[in-house]
Structures are given as structure tokens and as C-alpha cells.
Write a structure and sequence with these properties.
This protein is α+β, with helices and mostly antiparallel strands and 470 residues long. Helix content is 27%, strand content 10%.
Length: 470
Amino acid sequence: MALCAAARKSWPWLSRARYTAGMREPAACVRGLRPVRVGVAVAIGGALLGAFWRAHAEVPPPVSNAAALSSPSSSTPSSSNPESSSSGSFSSTVAAATGGVPLTGLTAAELERFERGRDAFERVRGIETGLGPVFNDVGCNRCHNKRGVGGAGIQSAVLAGRLDERGFDALLSRGGPTFAANTVMAEPSTDTQRLIPNCRLSRDGERIPAEANVVARRRTTPLFGLGLVDATPDAAFVALAKRQPAAIRGRVAMVNDLATGQRVVGKFGWKAQAPTLHQFSGLALLLELGVTSPEFLLEQPPFGDAEGVAACDAVSEPEDGGDVERMTDFMRLLAAVAPLASTPEARAGDVLFSRIGCDGCHVRQLESGSSPTAALSERTYAPYSDFLLHDMGSLGDGIVEGDARPREMRTAPLWGGRLEGSSRLLHDGRAHSFAEAIERHDGQGAAARDAYRALSANERQKLAAFLATL
């Protein structure tokens, strides 16, 4: 335990894993924290607990895949030709008419991996399968469920810290920067008492400390098509940043890949804090469910108290049982959502999208690299994002995470946005229409915002019509 404390003093992120890609935990530190576990038994009723705070989550029935509208128009990533790269630029293997379905053209073995991954993604966990000690919900699909498994959700994660002239304090000793909504004592029962009889956590989740002057909410985003992003070489994002005009040039987020120990390009998460879907999956499982995995062996200390883990945790690490690998397969093989057929009004809006500079950052097309999965290999796709960090001024969430500074946010992909609707847009859901989301842009997005303000009411309607096709 002394070694563990010393490690945390030198590397404070080891005390509470984050979407920040940090260093691999010292094995001795992990062993020092591993409590003696009690037997496995039935614990919290996951479905009842999830229903308590997710009563309105939408879980549509499974749907079959469908071909997209046309084949790729170009093998070169482009952001300057709306006439050739608007709706209809997807390959039929990478995009589907709806969400939650696999890529077409997968082999039988790949489809089996997708199905196993979806099962893991939909699994509801309890204390006996590694839930907690602190968590936001009991299963991935409890949040990612809008318009298909892996979709957006109505939930938000909460982060907080203190930002002043000395820099950003993640409040690690108080449980920050992420603060879980629930603890394993949220629904105490006789099984809870049998599995973790000495747990004394509050039922109310982790409170935001009074010293925090930055509080950020991050809404649940869809996962459709992210295998294409995962298959895109780092060099493509580096080159894209170099091509952008200086006034809006994005910054490549350089983060740690825990699998290789290398500094690589971050692409996933609101701050581009995760470099691969595998690491993104492990981080999410830990931060949202409190479930450890081989790359993230340290539990989330409730309220920042590492000594409180043992009494409230009934399963030895790693707790995922291989689910990180399975969920990575699911996300990697999940098809993107194809745009709707364009109308004259939407086509006019497509041109305006370029004219006012939206596609300077919301880049229309990228191309994946070579992949052992043929359906992902060298495919043109249309995410409407550069996956780079941009200084968004007042729109930034104030959190330092990974390589991202307080005002920096990763460009949000717009593909499949119509399945989310326009009632909760931007990272915290503060915007309730396309118009409001654009009006909120600041920093490097201010020029496009100002150009939008100069449009006529009719032109704004055409732009909204185009966005509604994505």
C-alpha cells in the first residue's frame, strides 16, 4: 500500500482512471488494492435499478440492414466539393438506413463476433458481476439505445474540477474529475448485505465538491460507424490538420495507447481522449459501470477514497470477463448511418454548408486505411468531422482531459445526427435546434457562426433541411 500511495503521488491519474489515456498501473499497486472478495451471488436487480433512473430510455426493436444510397464518389478525402460529396457518398458496405446494425459484407465469423459483442453491450450487471462501487448505469445499452443498439441517449456524464491561474485541478482526491450518479448502495437489499456487508457508501452517488468551479455535462453520443474511424491511419489526421487554414486549424490530440505504450492520435470522446475503440471501451466500462478490465485494473475509488474500495467490491480484477474485447468487436463492426435522399432544398443547404465554412472542421469525407476486416478496409466514409481538437472559446467545457485544454473540444461528427433529433445538441445538450447550436459556436467556430448570421431566413431553412438529411 505504501508503494501504491507513492505511485499515486507521482502519477495522480492512477488513483482514478479517466478518459485521459494514462500510464499502465504498477502491478504491485494493483495487488495492494485488490481486496479479499466474498463469494459470488445474486446482487442488485439490474433491471429494477436501471429502470429507476432510465425509465424513458428508448430501445427500439432490432431492424435489418439496408444498402446505402450509392458508392463512394472519390477515394480522396474532401471538404470542398458539396456537389460531389453530399448525401449519397457512402459505400454500401459502411452505411445502413438505420442504426444498430452490422456492416454489410461481413464474413460469418465477423457476424458472430458482432452478435457476441452486442450481447456484451446489452448485458446488465450487478454487484456479483463487477458493478461499482460507483457507476452511472448498469449496462452500456441503458444509455446507448436511441434508434438502435449503440445509439445516442438522454443521459449525461458529469465532470468537474477547479480552474484558476495555477491551472486545472481535477480534484482527484475528491473523486474527480468524473462524478458517478450512483453507488452500489443505491438499492440496498439482503443480497447487498451478504455480498458487501461492510460497505457504507452513500446511496446518492458522488457529490460535486464545493471547491469545484467548473462543472461539465457530456451527453451520450451514438457509436455508429466508429470502426471506420478506428481503421483510419493517424497520418491521415495529421495531414488533415496541416491542410486546414490557420484560422481554423485543428490540433491533433496525442494520447497514450495503453496496448502499445506509444503516443498516438486520440479520436474518440468529446476531448479526443481515447486513441482506439478498444481503449475507449475499457474506459467507458470502468467510468460508467465501475467494471475493471486488463488495461484498467484499478477500481474507481468512491469519493476519491481508495481505502473504501475493498468493502464495496465483491469481484476480483479484472471484472469484465472478456467483455472489452467483445464490445470492441461490436463497435468496430457497427455500420454508419447513411444520409437520406436529398431534396432541392437540402441540396441548396449543402452548398451553404460549404459557403459559410462549416466543412472546414466538419469535414465531409475521410478514407480508412488497410484493415483485416474487408468491410472496413480503404473505404470512403462521410463523418462530417475532422476528429481534431479546436479552440471553441466559450463553448469549451473547461475540463483538461487527455491532450485537450479547457477551451478545446473535438469536432463532433454530424453523421446519423437525424436519428438523435435536434432537441439536445452540442456536448452538454444545451442547444435545442440546429440554429441554436450554430449560434453557440465560438472561438475557431466564430467565423462560421457569423457567416450563418448573415444568411437570410430562407437560406437558414435550406441549411437546416440539409442537416436533417445526415
